[in-house]
Amino acid sequence: MRFSSAGLVTDDEAPAGFFPEFVDSVLRGIGQVMLQNNSYAGLIFLIGIGYNSTLFALAALVGTTVSTATAMVLAVDRSLVRVGLFGFNGALVAIALLYFLQPGVLAWSCVIVASACSTIVMAALLRLFGTWKVPALTAPFVLTSLCVFLATARFGRLESTHLLPTAGLPKAVTVEGVVVASTVAEGLFNGVSQVFFQENIVTGVLFAVGLLISSRVACVAALLGSLTGLAVAWGMGAAEPAIRAGAFGFNSVLTAIALGGTLFVLNTASISYALLATIATAVVFAAISAALEPLGMPALTLPFVVVVWTFALASPLFPGLRASN
Amino acid sequence: MRFSSAGLVTDDEAPAGFFPEFVDSVLRGIGQVMLQNNSYAGLIFLIGIGYNSTLFALAALVGTTVSTATAMVLAVDRSLVRVGLFGFNGALVAIALLYFLQPGVLAWSCVIVASACSTIVMAALLRLFGTWKVPALTAPFVLTSLCVFLATARFGRLESTHLLPTAGLPKAVTVEGVVVASTVAEGLFNGVSQVFFQENIVTGVLFAVGLLISSRVACVAALLGSLTGLAVAWGMGAAEPAIRAGAFGFNSVLTAIALGGTLFVLNTASISYALLATIATAVVFAAISAALEPLGMPALTLPFVVVVWTFALASPLFPGLRASN
Amino acid sequence: MRFSSAGLVTDDEAPAGFFPEFVDSVLRGIGQVMLQNNSYAGLIFLIGIGYNSTLFALAALVGTTVSTATAMVLAVDRSLVRVGLFGFNGALVAIALLYFLQPGVLAWSCVIVASACSTIVMAALLRLFGTWKVPALTAPFVLTSLCVFLATARFGRLESTHLLPTAGLPKAVTVEGVVVASTVAEGLFNGVSQVFFQENIVTGVLFAVGLLISSRVACVAALLGSLTGLAVAWGMGAAEPAIRAGAFGFNSVLTAIALGGTLFVLNTASISYALLATIATAVVFAAISAALEPLGMPALTLPFVVVVWTFALASPLFPGLRASN
Question: Domain A13-164 adopts which CATH fold?
């Protein structure tokens, strides 16, 4: 995939006609949640979500459709829309809003308006980070979703589910629970499935299959990323239930895909660099989760965004790493 | 008005001599709080403030004078000073400090130093955002004021009034109070008057008159902005007293003026774009208010700044919107 | 010193051979904590730390070595490494981690990984701020250290010492204690020694001697900076024990060195500008300390970073100030 420049969709893969083309853009948008410009990957991700929950599959479809359509109405450069760059944030916004807010007319209205707004935020960040040729990643999703969640503290008709963290002051913890073989096995695939807010091993396996169809390197990177995040959390003494649920994995999955197979040409230097970033992502996840605790907000994929921004910004100063595009 | 480039003051409107020219710059500075490069508008805004409180009118005058004079001492490009770009943040800093801090010698000293500092912050942001040709807006006011308010937690002689929010952890609310016709009527004009921290309907009407003299489009945008903010807050279930006080209006007023009559040529696309931004501003106000709750800090005009930055940054990617300068 | 551009090390001061050259780079790295590209200053700073604590002297040496070596492995432009630009953040990260975390194998492992990461963050910020030719300062240290400290709230095996602030909601304070002559005398030199997290008057004197060897202007600026921070805190009613410990001094020390002797040519305008920045630093320290209170995090040198960024960004708009390089 290309992040910031116009990724051309060649004629032989672009279906003819407006509707099939739109469907293709939407599926690529879902694929881009895992940084894959591949409509088959997007379709399998959608099936994976649907296996766990039809509500979230519907949400992903609606969110991607709204954000992609918004970009088309605003006449964004067609090549950017066609590779799904204006879809993935809408997909995540829609799932997150229906995960953390009580479903209903108002929540669904918020899904639609927020997915549309994610397109504006995406355009803003494309322009902001274009200066340094750094991708916007899932920052539009994070910013838009956190705004809506925070607003529940002022808007009485916007009710959150009990799944948002309870607001409190961060404090030091002791090691909770014991990591066993099933923690690792479940945590590994839950880490992959949590990228779409799903906690389901079969969904995680389906996501890995989707990645495999798009890119073997991305599939391997995702699984190693999940494992690295899990291992760091285990070694540092994170709570066992959180490790099992994949909480320390999904950001590392994304970092590993981005740095270990997308942004750089693979060699010893770039693999070490990606590994360091993947380790850092698990620590930054712990840090951002704690930092958002007084607000009762989840970290979402902000740790992935912050770490990949840092490592991507820094990379031109390191001649051993060569950009892949 | 021009945000970032040199707005020329033509000969026929520039009074001769240093003192009248300085007074003109100061009045334009007060006008720029509502994005109007117009000394008559500034004068009427000052009268509107004075109708509600002579203290705040004096503060606005002192703050604008200090920040404008600081810019002149530092030899900032004259054309920027002449259009009031180095006045409006000083005006707001001075009012906010005297609104939230116990008046006295120390508070007034802080007003003078903070107004001077707002000029440095303004220059820093002009340079930072000049890269993308995005205006600094009232960010210097927000950053400078929040610093002083936060410092009250360490400096025993710097006493805050009971008007700063109480620090607490944000939590979900239920709908409080019933919105009636008088809520809407008062909220509409309070939303306009709250731009200068005033809660007074007559002041709001005077501000609207000041806008009308400068620009009919800005006047209409301000009133529609206030109404939109109010309507979003009402629909989402915000507390009635906050709606009546104009709390959900003043940021939307500024967003509507900036996007609905200043930055873009008016057409269907730009009006829809401004409307979406104005709606988003009310939600972002709720979000930022909640986010600042653990610190006991007010959102000030930060929601306006964040939303207009986002929509202004994004706009060049949307060919339907044409910049007005 | 040069912040952002390649500072050339001339032949007559560069020792021959890899090892002496590396040692020289490391010592310059320690010197750069106080913005001095001078290996003798670095050596005296190291002795000053060792006078107070051999643990922290060892930490400074390890941190600087790791971050400098990381930059060399990643093949960063040699001239940047040679002037110590990739050392000072590692030095501070290492001291801060061992100051706020219980020592042990895990804490030392964190020191090594975090020092290496500070080099990546430094490269990212050099690139980000290179756009405006603004130095990265100690931001990599602040960001990296806060991440690790925040992570203690999720990682049971990462134990903090009792020296991290207790998380709480900021509230207004009353004046605590009476400032006497010994408060001023101790606070003056503690302010200098706190730059390296040491609270020791002799260490402060040794640091001043190190500065004197490198630059008389820097030495005078540091002492006046410490005094200014102390005076502002005293005048505003800060707690006497904090003033005595130098808490309000160390950020002002760094601001005074950066703005009062490094970035600009000295004249009346630049000295007034540096003085305003130094005063602002003490207020921003109070503000950031309060803002981080709900997280139980220390402000570290973030106030210095924020103020110098602002004043350095703004300076090209003020023709009276001339950049020194």
Answer: Ammonium transporter fold (1.10.3430)
